[in-house]
Write a structure and sequence with these properties.
CATH topology: Rossmann fold
Helix content: 25-40%
Strand content: 15-25%
Structural class: alpha/beta
Largest sheet: 5 strands, parallel
Radius of gyration: 14 Å
Length: 149
C-alpha cells in the first residue's frame, strides 16, 4: 500500500482555537481524522506529524524518503522564512505539495511570498481543511494509484 506523509508546521497544533475566522473551527485532530478516512477511501495510508520546530520538520521530511510516495506539507509561517525547509524538500527526491488553510495570496504582503513553492510540485491554498484533501488526492493521482470515485 502506498503511503504519504501529512506534515503540519508551526502553530497548527492550535487549530480550532487560533483565529477560527481565518483558519477554521476544526482542530488538528479533526483534520487528521478526516484525512485518515480519505486515505482509506483512496486505498493508501498516511502518517500525520506536527511540530513547531523547524529541525523536527526537516527530520520528518528526511525520514519520508525511506517510505513515502509524497508529502502534503503545511509549513505555516515557515513558508515565508525557511530556506532550510526549502532545501530539505529539494533534497528528498519525492513530490511535496504545499498547502495552506487560508488564501495566503489575499492576506498580508509577507504571506504572499513562499520560499517553499519553487521546490514543490504544487500549492493548494484557501480551501480550509479541504486544501489537505485536495493535495492528498493530487499526490495519489500523480503516483498512479487508482482513486475511488
Amino acid at each position: 500500500m502506498k503511503a504519504y506523509l501529512i506534515l503540519h508546521g508551526a502553530n497548527l497544533n492550535l487549530l480550532g482555537t487560533r483565529e477560527p475566522q481565518v483558519y477554521g473551527a476544526l482542530t488538528l485532530a479533526e483534520i487528521n481524522a478526516r484525512l485518515q478516512m480519505l486515505a482509506q477511501e483512496l486505498g493508501v495510508s498516511i502518517r500525520c506529524f506536527q511540530s513547531n520546530h523547524e529541525g523536527e520538520l526537516i527530520e520528518a521530511l528526511h525520514g519520508a524518503r525511506a517510505w513515502a510516495e509524497g508529502v502534503v506539507f503545511n509549513p505555516g509561517a515557515y513558508t515565508h522564512t525557511s530556506i532550510a525547509l526549502r532545501d530539505a524538500i529539494a533534497a528528498i527526491g519525492i513530490p511535496v505539495v504545499e498547502v495552506h488553510l487560508s488564501n495566503v495570496h489575499a492576506r498580508e504582503a509577507f504571506r504572499q511570498r513562499s520560499l517553499i513553492a519553487p521546490v514543490c510540485v504544487g500549492t493548494i491554498a484557501g480551501f480550509g481543511w479541504l486544501s489537505y484533501a485536495l493535495a492528498l488526492r493530487a499526490l495519489v493521482e500523480r503516483s498512479g494509484t487508482e482513486v475511488a470515485r
